[in-house]
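User: Could you write out the 3D structure of this protein bound to flavin-adenine dinucleotide? I've included everything you need below.
Assistant: Certainly. Input first, then the structure.
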Amino acid sequence: MTDTTALTAHPIPPPATTVRSPARADAAVRTASALLLWAGLLLVTYWWVADGGIQDLGGWETGLTSVGRQTGLVASVLLLAQVALMARIPVLEHAFGQDRLAHLHRLVGFTSFNLMLAHVGLITWGYAAGDLGQVPRTFWDLTVDYPGILLALVGTLCLVLVAVTSARAARRRLRYESWHLLHLYAYVGVGLALPHQLWTGAQFMSSTARTVFWWAAWGSVVVAVLVWRVGLPVARNLRHDLRVEAVVPEGPGVVSVYLTGRRLDRFPAEAGQFFLWRFLGRPGWTRANPYSLSAAPDGRRLRITAQAVGDGSAALATLRPGGRVFVEGPYGRLSARARSRRKVALVGAGVGMAPIRALAAGLDYAPGEAVLVHRYRDQPLFAAEIAQLARDRGLRVLALPGRRRAPGSWTGGTTTGPASDLDALRTWIPDIAERDVYLCGPAAWADLVRADLQLAGLPPERLHLETFGW
Ligand SMILES: Cc1cc2nc3c(=O)[nH]c(=O)nc-3n(C[C@H](O)[C@H](O)[C@H](O)COP(=O)(O)OP(=O)(O)OC[C@H]3O[C@@H](n4cnc5c(N)ncnc54)[C@H](O)[C@@H]3O)c2cc1C
């Protein structure tokens, strides 16, 4: 552990003079993405209709094959969308944020997976002349006789593995790292599905327009993954060469890690965002852990603050100055980007205060426009820095210490006054519904706060939430 008294008084950068609010552009990107996906789905459906897909529904066998073909086409489009959603494409990351992208990825992924199973079943049944008894034999014949089908079968098994381990019950039993490693098999699954589409799917190659559509769709997803998941992080790390500068204790089991690097004035990070961090040259470096910036980037150094909850986070306390760091990011919409109002409320609990503390310094606000609600048990994190922000920038601070005052309550035991948390919220911040609210803390606590914010009239689009879960 390095004693860096000077560093603990982390300099607070001067406030920006304007509020950047690309909220409208982000909303336009969300709409355009949805339209693009629907256009793709409608186009393949149009081609299916043009190929007699609807007439084929008149016969039992032809109907099975026809529905099987259409489910396959829709599953393919969704499969590509699912990969694109997790390709870390900056414009999507900005517009949706990781939480929402992960949610959509899950929704699109399971829909695509179910349609893919329907595709395999219906096509085989159709080729078996609609006779269920013949399905196993037909399945075998298709697998060994048709080009690319064996590969597609292996790909399907990979996707089954990914889908099964992503079901909530299974996911709860797995360590994050195990689940993540298994999840990478999805790329193998998607890659192995391609050849059978090209070799046996007449729908794919029967016209120039279709050939262009499918190659463009596959090609752009592959390029997106290579550029944004691989190329950009490698280039960014080579350019900035991040190193550990110091590790500073913040409280029981909580440390801040300060990082320096080359040209950090060009490092694309905003207060409140998070990165995936790998601290190289020590055991377990292959595993990336997400941590939010706990100080607004000032062009000279970065800071994260982490609580020890397992091997990776506990080992941060033993990092040595000079150690190399590999990061992926920035990610997340818990930043000025999501803001649409001048007045903000920043609400944090425990180590969830890390991005909230960064936002309290990084957002632009006049005295009285920003209020910080700080929930903690015994020792507040960043107490001195928050007091300084209150003095220098007019940040209004509401401290909620102690054990929770009642079961199902999100405020502290020493909170006095109104009977319910909701009444307290309305009394403390009467104009809460008029603000942007940034909320970060344990998931169960954040759910309680979110429920009261909704009851207080806050529109959902003005709540910006991160809960540190997966
Ligand atoms: C967007 C985001 C921002 C975060 N910011 C902070 C922060 O600023 N400060 C802080 O103390 N903690 C933060 N966390 C939580 C932190 O990532 C985990 O506590 C840490 O990764 C635990 O790793 P471990 O090896 O110590 O423990 P493990 O025993 O490996 O994990 C303990 C739990 O941490 C979670 N976890 C582990 N690895 C990951 C991962 N790669 N992605 C998501 N969850 C994971 C899982 O729920 C796991 O069950 C953040 C999490 C997320 C998702």
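The chain has three domains: 23-235, 241-331, 339-465.
User: Perfect, thank you.
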